[in-house]
Design brief:
about 325 residues, alpha/beta, Arc Repressor Mutant, subunit A, 13 helices, 11 strands, about 40% helix, WH_DNA-bd_sf, LysR_subst-bd, LysR_HTH_N
Length: about 325
């Protein structure tokens, strides 16, 4: 069975102890940790990660007043002030940040224990925490939805927690255990993750309606030198890492604006003031509406491989393994999402 980390045991040992007792050198008898204590830690973790009481209401499915009561109970049990609220917003105290890290390790250990107990049963139970980068839902080549449907069919009681984050944040989440699996571009991947190839995404160079290039025939642009001859036009460039092919295509563009994700790039390109790259599946709707047009389609496009990443030294996790198995199956009879 899974054993809890030293940090998790430390968090447990602090529960329900008054501060005066914790500071004493005498060894006192510890009260048993209850399910209610664990629930309080889950509430605290959700509040901390959502950034406040109000933001955590939907996540937890309880009212802000109930969250406040739970937080007050936890602070009394620990004898610590965990957060501050006021005009400056919500912020964890130094003690709160330390308790949050301990709570994460503790809850991760409990989930690992539950997963290992699942191995004794035929049905899947537990959680799958998955991180996916933006705009992938519109890709016709994605197998994520099919794999999630397969997982749900195998384990109706499995709880799936979907997180939409930038690729770097997803990789960090996989490494620190917050995420079981992530779907990201195969760019600058940490050495300590395993990757499973999914598909390749084509990105084209686009401009919006109202841009001077919008009405130019593609043949004319290609004759002028293709995408390499468009360096005079204002362009939006990504602030996130690109594949080697992507970096090559951005050389020579005039970087007049930046975007932290593809949604941001789309906003700027649709103004008609910038050219920039978008995944075809993300741009197709606006192209059909006559609001975007691809430039130099023969020479400017590039491909980005996408992969599913997991922590290399991960513990056995039946829910994750079932999902990865579904993800790796051939597309027999399935064309995509």
């Amino acid at each position: 069975m899974a054993s809890l980390s030293a940090g998790a045991r430390s968090t447990l040992s602090c529960l329900r102890r008054p501060r005066a007792v914790r500071r004493s050198k005498r060894v006192s008898r510890q009260s048993p940790v209850t399910d209610f204590d664990i629930r309080l830690l889950r509430v605290f973790k959700a509040v901390a990660e959502c950034g406040g009481f109000s933001a955590a209401e939907n996540e937890l499915g309880i009212s802000r007043s109930a969250i406040s009561l739970h937080m007050g109970d936890l602070e009394k049990r620990l004898g610590l002030k965990l957060c501050r609220r006021g005009r400056g917003g919500f912020a964890l105290t130094e003690e709160g940040r330390e308790v949050l890290e301990g709570a994460r390790r503790l809850l991760s250990g409990l989930e690992a224990f539950r997963t290992e107990v699942n191995a004794l049963h035929h049905s899947l139970r537990g959680e799958l925490n998955i991180g996916i980068t933006d705009t992938l839902v519109s890709s016709p080549e994605m197998r994520i939805t099919h794999a999630l449907a397969s997982l749900k069919a195998q384990g109706p009681e499995v709880r799936i927690n979907m997180h939409m984050d930038p690729p770097g944040e997803i990789a960090r989440g996989v490494l620190d255990g917050r995420l079981h699996v992530g779907v990201v571009p195969a760019v600058n991947l940490p050495a300590s993750v395993d990757s499973q190839a999914l598909y390749s995404e084509r990105s084209g160079l686009y401009c919006g309606r109202g841009h001077p290039l919008f009405a130019e025939p593609s043949t004319a642009l290609e004759a002028l030198g293709g995408w390499q001859a468009l360096g005079q036009w204002d362009a939006v460039v990504p602030s996130y890492p690109l594949s080697e092919a992507g970096r090559e295509r951005h050389v020579g563009l005039k970087p007049s604006a930046t975007a932290s994700d593809r949604e941001g790039a789309a906003f700027l390109i649709l103004t008609g003031a910038y050219i920039g790259y978008l995944p075809d599946h993300h741009a197709n709707l606006w192209v059909a509406q006559g609001r975007l047009r691809e430039l130099c389609s023969e020479s400017a496009a590039y491909e980005t491989p996408f992969v599913a990443i997991t922590r290399r030294d991960r513990r056995p996790h039946r829910v994750l393994e079932a999902f990865l198995a579904a993800l790796g199956k051939s597309d027999a009879g399935v064309s995509g999402d």
